[in-house]
Specification:
Structural class of chain A: mainly alpha
Mean pLDDT of chain A: 95
Mean pLDDT of chain B: 95
Number of strands of chain A: 6
Low-confidence stretches of chain A: none
Number of helices of chain A: 19
Distance between the termini of chain B: 77 Å
Oligomer: heterodimer
Radius of gyration of chain B: 22 Å
Number of strands of chain B: 5
Structural class of chain B: mainly alpha
Helix content of chain A: 55-70%
Shape of chain B: extended
Helix content of chain B: 40-55%
Radius of gyration of chain A: 23 Å
Number of domains of chain B: 2
Chain lengths: 563, 190
C-alpha cells in the first residue's frame, strides 16, 4: 500500500465523521417536527400529500396498526413491481424491445427491491426497460429506504415515550423520510454524478462502429437518478449488470468516493439523530464508535487479504474483477462498506476477491448488517443487539437489565432472539439445502471451497438484505429465485416485526430516572461489551460454515492448490 | 379497508413523485448542464460516432494499443467480469496464457514485468483504462507496425504522457491512460 492509499481511507473516515452530526441534526429536526431548511421548499407538498391520500398526520397508532400499514404498503409495492415486469413488453419506454421477465425472476426482483435488498438475478441492460427501472425499481429504492427509517423512528419513540401504546404514524414517517431526506440528497447527488459522466437520458441504445472496425452497442437510459438513490438508500441494485464497476455507472475516482460515502452517510447520521432523540448525544456516538471499530477491523483484514502475496499468483496485484481507475484499495474499501451497510452495490467482482476479503464481506453480512447497516435497518438491528447486551450484562451482575431508563423484560429479549434466529436459521438451512441438492449445485461457477462460498454468500446476502453476490453463481433459476426470495422476506420482516413489537412493548413501560446504580450505555465498557455480543451472538453461529468455505480456501491457496 | 386505500394512494403519489417527476427533473437538469456527459460521452470522428470515452473497446490489431482482457470482449450487452475465484485453476491458466500472448505480441522478453491489469480481466469487461506502464510496453510494437521514425515514436510516447490521468483532487484514484483516446491520437501522428 502507498501513502496515497492510506490518505484515501483517512479522508473517507474524516468526511463521514464530519457529516454525521450535520445530517444527523437536520434529520433530528425533520422527525421531531421542528423548523428546518426544507420546510419552506417542500412543506406545502407534504400537506398536499396527506390531503390527497386522506391520512391524518396527527393521528398516531399502536405498534400493530403501524406494522399493518407498513406491510400493506410494502405488499402493494410488491404486486406493482411484479406486474410491470411481467408485462414490460407491452409497456412504453422500452427502446431495446426487451421481452417480458419470467415469473420467478419477477417475483425474486420485486421481493428484493421492496425489501431494500436489491439482489439481482438479472442483468439490467438486457432485462429491464426504462419504464420498469424508473417507475418500478427507482420508486422502491426510495420507499424501501423510507420504510427502514420509519421503523427506527417507531423504535426510538418506543424508547422515549412512557406508559402509552402509541408509537407513531407510518404515513408521516414515510412521507417525511422521502420528501425531506432521500429526495433532496438524491437530487444533489444525481447531478454531481452526471457531472462526472454518469448517463441520464432516454435515448435508444447507441450502435457504434469501433475504431478497428468492430461493432458495439452502448446501453443508454436514465441511470444517474437511479444510482443516486441506490447508494444513498443502501439499496445497491445497479442500473447495469456490472453495477458500480460499469464506467457509465461509476466513471471516475471522485464519483467512486462519493458513492462509498453515500452508502454510509444516512446510516451514520441516524446514530447522531438517535442520540439527540433519546436525550444524549453520547448514546449516539457510542453506537457510532461500535460501528466504526467493527468497520475498521473488517477493512484491515480485507486489505491484508488483498495485499498479501500468495503462491498461486506471487507478487502480482490481484486485479481480476477490478477496474484500473479504482485500483485495489478503492475496490476493497467499497466491498467492505457495501457489505457493512446492506447496500450491495459493488465496484469490483466479489467472487474474484481473495479468500480473506471475501470472508470479511460474508462476515459483515452475517453480523446482521448492523455495522452502519441499511438505512434505518442497521440501527434497529443494533438496538436489538443492545437489548441482548444489557440483558447479558444484567445477568452477569445480577441486576434487572435497563436501557435508557426502560426495564428490559422477557418479551423484549424473546423478540430480540427471534429477530436474531430468523436470519441465522434462514442462512444455514438454505445454504445446507442448496449445497447438497442438484439444482443448488447446478448454479456453481467455481468449484472446491470457493463454490461453497458462492452458495453461502448468496443466502447470507439475501438474509441480510444486502444484495451483493459472488456473481459467478447462476441464481436466475427457479430454485434460487424462489428460495432466495423467501430468505429475503424472512430476513426483512423477521426483523422488522420483532423490532416494532419491542417498540410497542417499551412504549408501555415507565422510565426509571438514572441513579448511581444504573448501568451506563455510553462509555467504553459498554462499547466493548456490545462489540463482544455482536461478534459472539451474531458471528459465532457461522464459524463452522465459514471454516468450510473461505477459511479452508485461504489455507489451500497458501499451499498453492487450485481447483 | 381504510389502510388499503391510503396505501394505494400514497403508493401512487410516490410512484409519480420519485418514479416520474424525479428522473425527468434530473434528466432535464443533466441535459442542460452536462448534455455531452449525460448522453454517454460519445466520441465523434469524421462525423461518425466511434465510441464512448468511458467504454473500452476491443483492440487486437498490431497498430493499436491493446485494452485490458475482457471476458465479454467489450460487448456491453450485458457487462460483467469473469467471477473466477483465485483458487480456480482456469484463472491460473488464463493468466499464464495472457502473459505469454502479451509478451510475444509485443516482442518482449518473457521475464518482463507485465502490469497486472493486462493479465487480469476487469470487473465490468468495459474498463477503458490501462496503466501508463502497460502503454509504454506496447510502443515499440506499434511504432514498428506503423513504420514510425524516431520523431513519430517520440510523439507517441508524448501522447501517453499527455493522456495519463493522475489522481483527482491530488489523492483519489490510480494513474491511468484511456486506450481509445490514445489510439485516436495515435492515428493522428504522421
Amino acid at each position: 500500500m502507498t501513502p496515497q492509499d492510506f490518505i484515501q481511507i483517512i479522508l473517507f473516515i474524516a468526511v463521514l465523521t464530519g457529516l454525521t452530526p450535520i445530517l444527523g441534526s437536520y434529520m433530528y429536526k425533520v422527525f421531531t417536527g421542528k423548523k428546518h431548511v426544507m420546510l419552506p421548499v417542500l412543506g406545502w407538498l407534504e400537506g398536499l400529500i396527506y390531503r390527497f391520500v386522506g391520512a391524518d398526520p396527527v393521528e398516531e397508532t399502536n405498534w400493530k396498526s403501524y406494522t399493518f400499514s407498513l406491510l400493506m404498503f410494502n405488499f402493494i409495492g410488491f404486486v406493482f413491481v411484479f406486474l410491470i415486469q411481467l408485462f414490460q413488453a407491452y409497456l412504453p419506454l422500452n427502446p431495446a424491445n426487451l421481452p417480458n421477465v419470467s415469473w420467478h425472476s419477477a417475483i425474486n426482483t420485486s421481493v428484493s427491491f421492496v425489501t431494500n435488498t436489491n439482489w439481482q438475478g438479472y442483468a439490467g441492460e438486457t432485462t429491464m426497460s426504462y419504464f420498469v427501472q424508473m417507475i418500478g425499481l427507482t420508486v422502491q429504492n426510495f420507499v424501501s429506504a423510507a420504510t427502514g427509517i420509519a421503523v427506527i423512528l417507531a423504535v426510538i419513540r418506543g424508547i422515549t415515550r412512557k406508559s402509552t401504546d402509541i408509537i407513531g404514524n407510518f404515513w408521516t414517517d414515510l412521507t417525511r423520510s422521502i420528501l425531506y431526506v432521500l429526495l433532496p440528497l438524491s437530487i444533489m447527488f444525481a447531478i454531481v454524478l452526471v457531472g462526472q459522466g454518469v448517463i441520464q437520458n432516454f435515448k435508444t441504445y447507441e450502435p457504434v462502429q469501433t475504431l478497428q472496425g468492430g461493432h458495439q452497442v452502448l446501453p443508454m437510459g436514465p441511470a444517474a437518478s437511479q444510482i443516486a438513490i441506490k447508494q444513498l438508500g443502501t439499496n445497491g441494485g445497479g442500473f447495469f449488470n456490472a453495477n458500480s464497476a460499469h464506467p457509465f455507472e461509476n466513471p471516475t475516482p471522485f464519483s467512486n468516493f462519493l458513492q462509498i460515502l453515500a452508502i454510509f452517510l444516512i446510516p451514520a447520521s441516524l446514530t447522531y439523530m438517535y442520540g439527540k432523540m433519546v436525550g444524549s448525544a453520547r448514546q449516539g456516538w457510542a453506537i457510532f464508535s461500535v460501528m466504526l471499530i467493527l468497520f475498521l477491523a473488517g477493512l484491515c483484514l480485507s486489505l491484508y487479504g488483498e495485499y498479501s502475496t500468495n503462491p498461486v499468483f506471487g507478487h502480482l496485484p490481484l486485479m481480476e474483477g477490478k477496474e484500473t481507475r479504482f485500483g485495489i484499495t478503492n475496490s476493497v474499501l467499497f466491498s467492505v462498506v457495501t457489505t457493512n451497510a446492506s447496500c450491495g452495490a459493488v465496484n469490483a467482482m466479489h467472487d474474484s476477491l481473495s479468500p480473506l476479503s471475501g470472508m470479511v464481506a460474508i462476515i459483515n453480512m452475517m453480523l446482521g448488517e448492523v455495522i452502519f447497516g441499511g438505512v434505518g435497518a442497521g440501527l434497529y438491528g443494533m438496538v436489538i443487539f443492545i437489548i441482548l447486551t444489557v440483558f447479558i450484562a444484567g445477568l452477569m451482575v445480577g441486576r434487572t437489565p435497563e436501557y435508557l431508563g426502560k426495564k428490559i423484560g422477557a418479551f423484549e429479549v424473546q423478540m430480540a432472539i427471534v429477530a436474531n434466529l430468523t436470519t441465522s436459521v434462514a442462512i444455514l438451512v438454505f445454504t445446507a439445502w442448496a449445497s447438497v441438492s442438484s439444482y443448488g449445485l447446478a448454479g456453481l461457477h467455481n468449484t472446491g471451497p470457493h463454490g461453497f462460498s458462492e452458495i453461502l454468500y448468496a443466502y447470507t446476502s439475501a438474509a441480510g438484505n444486502n444484495g451483493s453476490a459472488f456473481a459467478g453463481l447462476n441464481a436466475n433459476t427457479l430454485f434460487y429465485n424462489l428460495t432466495l426470495g423467501f430468505v429475503i422476506l424472512a430476513g426483512r420482516f423477521g426483523v422488522i416485526i420483532p423490532a416494532l413489537a419491542i417498540a410497542g412493548s417499551l412504549a408501555g413501560k415507565n422510565i426509571t430516572p438514572p441513579s448511581s446504580g444504573t448501568f451506563r450505555t455510553d462509555n467504553w465498557l459498554f462499547i466493548g461489551l456490545l462489540i463482544g455480543v455482536i461478534l459472539i451472538v451474531g458471528g459465532l453461529t457461522y464459524f463452522p460454515s465459514l471454516s468450510l468455505g473461505p477459511v479452508v480456501e485461504h489455507l489451500l491457496m497458501n499451499n498453492g492448490i487450485s481447483f | 379497508m381504510k389502510t388499503l386505500l391510503i396505501s394505494l394512494k400514497i403508493f401512487l403519489t410516490f410512484t409519480v413523485l420519485t418514479g416520474i417527476i424525479y428522473p425527468l427533473f434530473i434528466t432535464g437538469i443533466a441535459q442542460v448542464l452536462f448534455p455531452e456527459k449525460a448522453n454517454g460521452s460519445l466520441l465523434v470522428r469524421n462525423s461518425q460516432v466511434v465510441g464512448s470515452k468511458l467504454i473500452g473497446q476491443q483492440f487486437d490489431s498490431v497498430i493499436y494499443f491493446t485494452s485490458r482482457p475482457s471476458v465479454i470482449l467489450y460487448n456491453p450487452l450485458p457487462s460483467g467480469g469473469s467471477n473466477y475465484g483465485l483458487t480456480n485453476i482456469k484463472l491460473k491458466e488464463i493468466v499464464a496464457a495472457r502473459r505469454h500472448t502479451f509478451c510475444s505480441f509485443n516482442q518482449l522478453d518473457s521475464l518482463t514485468a507485465i502490469p497486472s491489469e493486462m493479465l487480469f480481466a476487469s470487473a465490468s469487461g468495459l474498463d477503458p483504462h490501462i496503466s501508463p506502464q502497460a502503454a509504454l510496453l506496447q510502443v515499440d510494437r506499434i511504432a514498428n507496425a506503423r513504420n514510425f521514425n524516431d520523431l513519430c515514436k517520440l510523439k507517441l510516447i508524448n501522447c501517453i504522457k499527455n493522456l495519463t490521468e493522475g489522481s483527482q483532487f491530488l489523492c483519489l484514484g490510480e494513474k491511468r491512460v484511456n486506450v481509445l483516446l490514445l489510439n485516436l491520437e495515435t492515428d493522428k501522428i504522421q
